[in-house]
Protein backbone atom coordinates (compact mmCIF):
# COMPACT_ATOMS: atom_id res chain seq x y z
CA UNK A 1 0.00 0.00 0.00
CA UNK A 2 1.15 3.54 -0.68
CA UNK A 3 2.00 5.87 2.19
CA UNK A 4 -1.41 7.54 2.20
CA UNK A 5 -2.86 4.10 2.92
CA UNK A 6 -5.13 4.46 -0.08
CA UNK A 7 -5.08 1.94 -2.90
CA UNK A 8 -3.39 3.38 -6.01
CA UNK A 9 -3.96 1.60 -9.29
CA UNK A 10 -2.09 2.26 -12.52
CA UNK A 11 -4.30 1.15 -15.41
CA UNK A 12 -3.51 0.57 -19.06
CA UNK A 13 -5.81 0.38 -22.09
CA UNK A 14 -4.51 -0.87 -25.46
CA UNK A 15 -7.14 -3.08 -27.11
CA UNK A 16 -7.35 -1.20 -30.40
CA UNK A 17 -6.76 2.40 -31.55
CA UNK A 18 -6.21 3.97 -28.12
CA UNK A 19 -3.26 3.68 -25.79
CA UNK A 20 -4.31 5.05 -22.43
CA UNK A 21 -2.86 5.18 -18.93
CA UNK A 22 -4.75 6.29 -15.83
CA UNK A 23 -4.14 6.37 -12.10
CA UNK A 24 -7.05 5.62 -9.82
CA UNK A 25 -7.00 6.22 -6.07
CA UNK A 26 -9.92 4.40 -4.50
CA UNK A 27 -12.83 5.55 -6.67
CA UNK A 28 -11.16 8.77 -7.80
CA UNK A 29 -9.61 9.25 -11.22
CA UNK A 30 -6.36 11.12 -10.50
CA UNK A 31 -5.30 11.25 -14.12
CA UNK A 32 -6.57 9.75 -17.38
CA UNK A 33 -4.43 10.35 -20.47
CA UNK A 34 -4.37 8.74 -23.90
CA UNK A 35 -2.87 8.75 -27.35
CA UNK A 36 -5.23 7.72 -30.14
CA UNK A 37 -4.19 6.32 -33.50
CA UNK A 38 -6.10 7.96 -36.34
CA UNK A 39 -5.85 7.97 -40.14
CA UNK A 40 -6.62 10.60 -42.78
CA UNK A 41 -8.17 7.96 -45.01
CA UNK A 42 -8.52 4.20 -44.67
CA UNK A 43 -9.23 2.11 -41.60
CA UNK A 44 -7.23 0.86 -38.64
CA UNK A 45 -4.34 -1.49 -39.49
CA UNK A 46 -3.61 -3.52 -36.32
CA UNK A 47 0.17 -3.62 -36.68
CA UNK A 48 0.33 0.12 -37.38
CA UNK A 49 -1.80 0.82 -34.31
CA UNK A 50 0.49 -1.44 -32.23
CA UNK A 51 3.58 0.37 -33.53
CA UNK A 52 1.91 3.65 -32.64
CA UNK A 53 1.34 2.35 -29.09
CA UNK A 54 4.96 1.16 -28.86
CA UNK A 55 6.17 4.59 -29.90
CA UNK A 56 4.04 6.38 -27.28
CA UNK A 57 3.90 4.09 -24.24
CA UNK A 58 7.05 5.20 -22.38
CA UNK A 59 6.42 8.92 -22.85
CA UNK A 60 2.81 8.55 -21.78
CA UNK A 61 3.79 6.64 -18.63
CA UNK A 62 6.30 9.33 -17.75
CA UNK A 63 3.72 12.07 -18.39
CA UNK A 64 1.08 10.33 -16.26
CA UNK A 65 3.49 9.86 -13.34
CA UNK A 66 4.89 13.39 -13.56
CA UNK A 67 1.56 15.15 -13.96
CA UNK A 68 -0.03 13.27 -11.07
CA UNK A 69 3.07 13.63 -8.91
CA UNK A 70 3.24 9.88 -8.47
CA UNK A 71 6.26 7.64 -8.19
CA UNK A 72 6.05 4.14 -9.59
CA UNK A 73 6.85 2.88 -6.05
CA UNK A 74 3.53 4.43 -4.90
CA UNK A 75 1.53 2.12 -7.17
CA UNK A 76 -0.11 -0.80 -5.34
CA UNK A 77 -1.74 -2.56 -8.25
CA UNK A 78 -1.51 -2.64 -12.04
CA UNK A 79 -4.58 -3.20 -14.21
CA UNK A 80 -4.84 -3.71 -17.94
CA UNK A 81 -7.27 -4.58 -20.70
CA UNK A 82 -6.46 -8.24 -21.27
CA UNK A 83 -9.12 -8.74 -23.97
CA UNK A 84 -10.99 -8.76 -26.23
CA UNK A 85 -9.11 -6.80 -28.84
CA UNK A 86 -6.47 -6.80 -31.55
CA UNK A 87 -3.61 -9.11 -30.50
CA UNK A 88 -0.70 -6.85 -31.56
CA UNK A 89 -2.24 -3.94 -29.64
CA UNK A 90 -3.13 -6.02 -26.57
CA UNK A 91 0.47 -7.25 -26.41
CA UNK A 92 1.84 -3.71 -26.03
CA UNK A 93 -0.23 -3.10 -22.89
CA UNK A 94 0.48 -6.57 -21.53
CA UNK A 95 4.23 -6.16 -22.11
CA UNK A 96 4.28 -2.86 -20.23
CA UNK A 97 2.50 -4.56 -17.31
CA UNK A 98 4.97 -7.45 -17.48
CA UNK A 99 7.89 -5.03 -17.40
CA UNK A 100 6.55 -3.06 -14.41
CA UNK A 101 5.50 -6.26 -12.63
CA UNK A 102 8.93 -7.86 -12.99
CA UNK A 103 10.94 -4.73 -12.26
CA UNK A 104 8.92 -3.30 -9.35
CA UNK A 105 7.12 -6.44 -8.11
CA UNK A 106 3.69 -4.81 -8.44
CA UNK A 107 0.83 -7.32 -8.68
CA UNK A 108 -1.81 -6.96 -11.41
CA UNK A 109 -5.40 -7.63 -12.31
CA UNK A 110 -6.65 -8.63 -15.78
CA UNK A 111 -9.72 -6.66 -16.88
CA UNK A 112 -12.18 -7.45 -19.65
CA UNK A 113 -12.49 -4.37 -21.85
CA UNK A 114 -16.24 -4.74 -22.53
CA UNK A 115 -17.09 -5.29 -18.87
CA UNK A 116 -15.07 -2.14 -18.08
CA UNK A 117 -17.18 -0.10 -20.54
CA UNK A 118 -20.21 -1.26 -18.54
CA UNK A 119 -18.85 -0.94 -15.02
CA UNK A 120 -17.62 2.61 -15.56
CA UNK A 121 -21.09 3.65 -16.60
CA UNK A 122 -22.45 2.38 -13.30
CA UNK A 123 -19.63 3.85 -11.20
CA UNK A 124 -19.85 7.30 -12.78
CA UNK A 125 -23.60 7.72 -13.28
CA UNK A 126 -25.00 5.92 -10.28
CA UNK A 127 -27.12 3.57 -12.39
CA UNK A 128 -27.95 0.60 -10.15
CA UNK A 129 -29.20 -2.20 -12.34
CA UNK A 130 -29.43 -0.99 -15.91
CA UNK A 131 -29.81 -2.56 -19.30
CA UNK A 132 -26.66 -1.49 -21.07
CA UNK A 133 -26.52 -0.54 -24.69
CA UNK A 134 -22.86 -1.08 -25.47
CA UNK A 135 -22.25 0.53 -28.82
CA UNK A 136 -18.60 0.71 -29.80
CA UNK A 137 -16.32 -0.09 -32.73
CA UNK A 138 -16.13 -3.85 -32.71
CA UNK A 139 -18.98 -4.53 -30.30
CA UNK A 140 -22.69 -3.87 -30.30
CA UNK A 141 -24.48 -5.63 -27.49
CA UNK A 142 -27.47 -5.15 -25.24
CA UNK A 143 -26.42 -6.49 -21.87
CA UNK A 144 -27.96 -6.89 -18.44
CA UNK A 145 -26.65 -8.37 -15.22
CA UNK A 146 -28.68 -11.50 -14.43
CA UNK A 147 -27.75 -14.53 -12.35
CA UNK A 148 -24.18 -13.48 -11.55
CA UNK A 149 -23.15 -12.68 -15.13
CA UNK A 150 -23.38 -9.98 -17.70
CA UNK A 151 -25.71 -11.68 -20.17
CA UNK A 152 -26.07 -10.60 -23.75
CA UNK A 153 -29.74 -10.16 -24.64
CA UNK A 154 -29.16 -8.96 -28.16
CA UNK A 155 -26.23 -8.16 -30.39
CA UNK A 156 -25.14 -7.51 -33.92
CA UNK A 157 -25.07 -10.58 -36.14
CA UNK A 158 -22.36 -9.15 -38.35
CA UNK A 159 -20.42 -5.96 -37.64
CA UNK A 160 -20.30 -3.57 -34.71
CA UNK A 161 -22.14 -0.27 -35.14
CA UNK A 162 -18.87 1.73 -34.91
CA UNK A 163 -17.14 -0.42 -37.52
CA UNK A 164 -20.21 0.01 -39.71
CA UNK A 165 -20.01 3.81 -39.37
CA UNK A 166 -16.25 3.69 -39.96
CA UNK A 167 -16.70 1.46 -43.05
CA UNK A 168 -19.18 3.81 -44.66
CA UNK A 169 -17.02 6.83 -43.80
CA UNK A 170 -14.02 5.04 -45.34
CA UNK A 171 -16.08 4.34 -48.47
CA UNK A 172 -16.83 8.06 -48.69
CA UNK A 173 -13.07 8.76 -48.44
CA UNK A 174 -13.23 10.08 -44.89
CA UNK A 175 -10.60 8.92 -42.37
CA UNK A 176 -10.73 6.96 -39.11
CA UNK A 177 -12.67 7.29 -36.83
CA UNK A 178 -15.64 7.78 -39.12
CA UNK A 179 -18.45 8.02 -36.55
CA UNK A 180 -17.94 11.72 -35.74
CA UNK A 181 -17.67 12.53 -39.47
CA UNK A 182 -20.93 10.73 -40.29
CA UNK A 183 -22.52 12.55 -37.36
CA UNK A 184 -21.40 15.97 -38.70
CA UNK A 185 -22.88 15.13 -42.11
CA UNK A 186 -26.12 13.86 -40.56
CA UNK A 187 -26.57 17.10 -38.60
CA UNK A 188 -26.91 18.93 -41.92
CA UNK A 189 -29.97 16.97 -43.10
CA UNK A 190 -33.55 16.11 -42.17
CA UNK A 191 -34.32 14.25 -45.38
CA UNK A 192 -35.06 10.60 -44.65
CA UNK A 193 -34.29 7.98 -47.30
CA UNK A 194 -35.66 4.49 -46.64
CA UNK A 195 -32.94 1.97 -45.72
CA UNK A 196 -33.08 -1.74 -44.78
CA UNK A 197 -34.24 -2.01 -41.16
CA UNK A 198 -32.95 -5.34 -39.90
CA UNK A 199 -33.93 -6.56 -36.44
CA UNK A 200 -34.00 -10.36 -36.18
CA UNK A 201 -35.42 -11.48 -32.87
CA UNK A 202 -33.26 -9.61 -30.38
CA UNK A 203 -30.35 -9.20 -32.79
CA UNK A 204 -29.55 -6.67 -35.45
CA UNK A 205 -27.76 -6.86 -38.78
CA UNK A 206 -25.97 -3.94 -40.44
CA UNK A 207 -24.26 -5.37 -43.52
CA UNK A 208 -27.36 -5.09 -45.75
CA UNK A 209 -27.72 -1.42 -44.85
CA UNK A 210 -24.03 -0.81 -45.62
CA UNK A 211 -24.38 -2.40 -49.08
CA UNK A 212 -27.49 -0.32 -49.77
CA UNK A 213 -25.77 2.88 -48.64
CA UNK A 214 -22.85 2.21 -50.97
CA UNK A 215 -25.24 1.58 -53.89
CA UNK A 216 -27.22 4.75 -53.19
CA UNK A 217 -24.00 6.74 -52.94
CA UNK A 218 -22.65 5.28 -56.19
CA UNK A 219 -25.90 6.17 -58.00
CA UNK A 220 -24.98 9.84 -57.36
CA UNK A 221 -28.68 10.64 -56.91
CA UNK A 222 -28.44 11.30 -53.18
CA UNK A 223 -26.64 13.81 -51.01
CA UNK A 224 -24.17 12.26 -48.54
CA UNK A 225 -25.75 14.36 -45.78
CA UNK A 226 -29.13 12.67 -46.45
CA UNK A 227 -27.52 9.24 -46.48
CA UNK A 228 -25.70 9.94 -43.20
CA UNK A 229 -28.90 11.24 -41.60
CA UNK A 230 -30.94 8.23 -42.74
CA UNK A 231 -28.22 5.83 -41.65
CA UNK A 232 -28.23 7.24 -38.10
CA UNK A 233 -32.04 7.33 -37.84
CA UNK A 234 -32.36 3.72 -39.02
CA UNK A 235 -29.41 2.11 -37.24
CA UNK A 236 -30.05 3.85 -33.91
CA UNK A 237 -33.77 2.96 -34.03
CA UNK A 238 -32.72 -0.69 -34.45
CA UNK A 239 -30.40 -0.46 -31.40
CA UNK A 240 -33.11 1.12 -29.28
CA UNK A 241 -35.82 -1.31 -30.32
CA UNK A 242 -33.69 -4.17 -29.00
CA UNK A 243 -32.69 -2.21 -25.87
CA UNK A 244 -36.32 -1.40 -25.10
CA UNK A 245 -37.39 -5.01 -25.49
CA UNK A 246 -34.56 -6.13 -23.19
CA UNK A 247 -35.74 -3.59 -20.59
CA UNK A 248 -39.30 -4.95 -20.84
CA UNK A 249 -38.13 -8.57 -20.72
CA UNK A 250 -35.86 -8.09 -17.67
CA UNK A 251 -38.26 -5.63 -16.05
CA UNK A 252 -35.51 -3.03 -15.63
CA UNK A 253 -36.18 0.66 -15.36
CA UNK A 254 -32.75 1.97 -16.29
CA UNK A 255 -30.90 2.26 -19.57
CA UNK A 256 -27.17 3.02 -19.61
CA UNK A 257 -25.06 3.80 -22.64
CA UNK A 258 -21.45 2.76 -23.14
CA UNK A 259 -18.90 2.60 -25.96
CA UNK A 260 -17.62 5.22 -28.38
CA UNK A 261 -20.73 5.41 -30.57
CA UNK A 262 -22.66 6.55 -27.49
CA UNK A 263 -20.81 9.89 -27.92
CA UNK A 264 -23.25 10.50 -30.76
CA UNK A 265 -25.66 13.30 -29.82
CA UNK A 266 -28.54 11.84 -31.85
CA UNK A 267 -28.17 8.41 -30.23
CA UNK A 268 -28.17 10.08 -26.80
CA UNK A 269 -31.28 12.07 -27.70
CA UNK A 270 -33.15 9.03 -29.05
CA UNK A 271 -32.20 7.03 -25.94
CA UNK A 272 -33.57 9.74 -23.64
CA UNK A 273 -36.83 9.90 -25.63
CA UNK A 274 -37.29 6.13 -25.45
CA UNK A 275 -36.68 6.13 -21.68
CA UNK A 276 -39.04 9.05 -21.09
CA UNK A 277 -41.78 7.28 -23.04
CA UNK A 278 -41.52 4.17 -20.84
CA UNK A 279 -40.97 5.96 -17.54
CA UNK A 280 -37.38 4.78 -17.30
CA UNK A 281 -34.12 6.61 -16.52
CA UNK A 282 -31.29 7.10 -18.98
CA UNK A 283 -27.65 7.21 -17.76
CA UNK A 284 -24.81 8.46 -19.95
CA UNK A 285 -21.30 9.26 -18.69
CA UNK A 286 -19.13 12.03 -20.22
CA UNK A 287 -17.69 11.34 -23.66
CA UNK A 288 -14.11 10.84 -22.38
CA UNK A 289 -15.39 7.78 -20.46
CA UNK A 290 -17.48 6.41 -23.36
CA UNK A 291 -14.60 6.00 -25.80
CA UNK A 292 -11.74 3.69 -24.95
CA UNK A 293 -9.92 4.98 -21.88
CA UNK A 294 -7.73 3.63 -19.11
CA UNK A 295 -9.81 5.10 -16.26
CA UNK A 296 -12.52 2.51 -16.93
CA UNK A 297 -9.93 -0.26 -16.58
CA UNK A 298 -8.67 1.19 -13.29
CA UNK A 299 -12.13 1.75 -11.83
CA UNK A 300 -13.20 -1.76 -12.78
CA UNK A 301 -10.00 -3.17 -11.25
CA UNK A 302 -10.80 -1.21 -8.10
CA UNK A 303 -14.27 -2.80 -7.93
CA UNK A 304 -12.85 -6.24 -8.67
CA UNK A 305 -10.20 -5.92 -5.98
CA UNK A 306 -12.63 -4.52 -3.40
CA UNK A 307 -15.04 -7.37 -4.20
CA UNK A 308 -12.38 -10.02 -3.55
CA UNK A 309 -11.31 -10.89 -7.08
CA UNK A 310 -7.92 -12.62 -7.11
CA UNK A 311 -4.87 -10.53 -8.00
CA UNK A 312 -1.99 -12.01 -9.98
CA UNK A 313 1.69 -11.99 -9.12
CA UNK A 314 3.26 -12.95 -12.47
CA UNK A 315 2.76 -13.77 -16.16
CA UNK A 316 0.12 -11.38 -17.49
CA UNK A 317 -1.78 -12.86 -20.43
CA UNK A 318 -4.03 -11.64 -23.25
CA UNK A 319 -7.43 -12.96 -24.38
CA UNK A 320 -8.15 -11.51 -27.84
CA UNK A 321 -11.52 -13.30 -28.25
CA UNK A 322 -12.93 -13.23 -24.70
CA UNK A 323 -16.69 -12.62 -24.70
CA UNK A 324 -18.62 -10.51 -22.19
CA UNK A 325 -20.64 -13.50 -20.96
CA UNK A 326 -17.50 -15.61 -20.40
CA UNK A 327 -16.31 -13.30 -17.63
CA UNK A 328 -17.00 -14.68 -14.16
CA UNK A 329 -18.22 -11.65 -12.21
CA UNK A 330 -17.14 -12.53 -8.68
CA UNK A 331 -16.96 -8.96 -7.37
CA UNK A 332 -20.56 -7.65 -7.52
P1 LIG B 1 -14.61 -2.03 -28.67
O1 LIG B 1 -15.02 -1.49 -27.33
O2 LIG B 1 -15.66 -2.76 -29.34
O3 LIG B 1 -13.28 -2.73 -28.64
P2 LIG B 1 -13.44 0.28 -29.79
O4 LIG B 1 -12.38 -0.06 -28.85
O5 LIG B 1 -13.12 0.41 -31.24
O6 LIG B 1 -14.48 -0.80 -29.65
P3 LIG B 1 -14.58 2.82 -28.70
O7 LIG B 1 -13.48 3.79 -28.43
O8 LIG B 1 -15.47 2.45 -27.59
O9 LIG B 1 -14.18 1.54 -29.41
O10 LIG B 1 -15.43 3.41 -29.90
C1 LIG B 1 -14.86 3.76 -31.13
C2 LIG B 1 -15.97 3.91 -32.14
O11 LIG B 1 -16.82 5.01 -31.75
C3 LIG B 1 -15.47 4.22 -33.53
O12 LIG B 1 -16.10 3.32 -34.42
C4 LIG B 1 -15.95 5.65 -33.77
O13 LIG B 1 -16.25 5.92 -35.13
C5 LIG B 1 -17.17 5.73 -32.90
N1 LIG B 1 -17.52 7.10 -32.50
C6 LIG B 1 -16.79 7.99 -31.80
N2 LIG B 1 -17.45 9.18 -31.68
C7 LIG B 1 -18.64 9.02 -32.33
C8 LIG B 1 -19.77 9.88 -32.59
N3 LIG B 1 -19.81 11.12 -32.18
N4 LIG B 1 -20.79 9.34 -33.30
C9 LIG B 1 -20.76 8.07 -33.73
N5 LIG B 1 -19.73 7.24 -33.54
C10 LIG B 1 -18.68 7.71 -32.84
FE1 LIG C 1 -13.89 -0.04 -26.48
Question: Any overview of this molecule?
Answer:
- The protein has 332 residues and is an alpha/beta fold.
- It has two domains: 8-113 and 292-326, ATPase, nucleotide binding domain (Nucleotidyltransferase, domain 5), CATH 3.30.420; 117-289, Nucleotidyltransferase, domain 5, CATH 3.30.420.40.
- It has ten helices and twelve strands.
- It has a five-stranded mixed beta sheet, sandwiched between helices. It has a five-stranded mixed beta sheet with strand order 8-7-6-11-12, with helices on both faces.
- Bound molecules: adenosine-5'-triphosphate and fe (ii) ion.
- The site of fe (ii) ion (FE2) has 5 residues, from helix 3.
- Residues 15-16, 85, 113, 117, 136-139, 160, 162, 165-166, 177-180, 183, 259-261, 263-264, 291-292 line the site of adenosine-5'-triphosphate.
What characteristics describe this protein?
332 residues, alpha/beta, Nucleotidyltransferase, domain 5, 2 domains, five-stranded mixed β-sheet, 10 helices, 12 strands, 20% strand, binds adenosine-5'-triphosphate, binds fe (ii) ion
Topology:
Blueprint: E1 8-13, E2 18-25, E3 28-36, H1 46-67, E4 77-83, H2 87-104, E5 108-112, H3 113-125, E6 131-135, E7 140-146, E8 149-155, H4 161-171, H5 179-186, E9 199-200, E10 203-204, H6 207-218, H7 224-250, E11 254-258, H8 265-277, E12 281-283, H9 287-290, H10 295-306
Parallel strand pairs: 1-4, 4-5, 6-11, 11-12
Antiparallel strand pairs: 1-2, 2-3, 6-7, 7-8, 9-10
The structure holds adenosine-5'-triphosphate and fe (ii) ion (FE2).
Fe (ii) ion (FE2) binds at residues 113, 117, 136, 259, 292.
Amino acid sequence: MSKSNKMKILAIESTAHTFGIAIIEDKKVLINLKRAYTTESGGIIPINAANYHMAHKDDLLEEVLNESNTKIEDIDLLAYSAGPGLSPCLRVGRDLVKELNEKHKIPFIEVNHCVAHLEITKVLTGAKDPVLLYASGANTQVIAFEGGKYRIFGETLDQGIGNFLDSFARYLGLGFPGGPKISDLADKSKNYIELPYSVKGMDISLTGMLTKLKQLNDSKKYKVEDLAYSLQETAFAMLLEVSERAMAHCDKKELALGGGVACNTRLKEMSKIMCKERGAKCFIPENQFLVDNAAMIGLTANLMHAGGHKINKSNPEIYPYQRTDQVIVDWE
